[in-house]
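Re: Re: ligand-bound prediction request (bumping)

Still looking for help on this. To restate: I need the protein modeled with heme C bound, output as structure tokens. Inputs repeated here so nobody has to scroll up.
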Amino acid sequence: MESGRLRVELSQLSDTVHTVELCVTNTLRKKTLSLQRLELASLPAQDTVRLESALRALTSASCLQTGFFNEACIRCHGGGNQSARGLNLTEGHSMAMLVNVPAASHPELLRVSGGRPEESLLHQILAESGQDVLHVNHVEILHKLGVDTDVLRTFIDEWIKSLPPKDPNS
Ligand code: HEC
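Reply:
Sorry for the wait, this slipped through. Here it is.
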């Protein structure tokens, strides 16, 4: 995703279209991550809606933030005393709290172990067999999001693979 270029142009939208939603989908067009919602009424009148600036800002991390953490996680991992296990998944905090940080519940594991999805607690709690890893069943939370869970898991694993490993000296 970081290296790809994508141009989206929607021409001649009818008056009955009120919202444009940009999503990552699987091959069956089932929504996986909702990235950006644009209310057309909030844009200047024009017959072509350009999503370019929104698209330019997209990275795997920003897609996970918008489409996943904001939707499914921050009601329990929302910062301040709303952060279960001290894990704050709100924008601007989530990456520093996840990547190469030891888990509070399983100190032998990293929450996200750069380059190693299978060794990451995040991967394990979202796997189909992960319902008992924590006291709260996070697989169920994933399923309730109503997206293609396999595509989302692959997306998360690819993101973890792209991250640098933990510096052994730190
Ligand atoms: C209903 C509340 C709730 C929601 C929603 C929720 N969590 Fe949690 N989460 C918890 C609780 C409670 C714990 C601590 C469980 C334990 O210690 O066994 C936890 C623990 C974790 C941990 C382990 C942290 C550590 O250091 O041990 C991770 C990682 C995590 N959650 C990620 C997520 C992600 C990603 C989402 C969104 C998909 C999410 N959680 C949604 C309640 C929630």
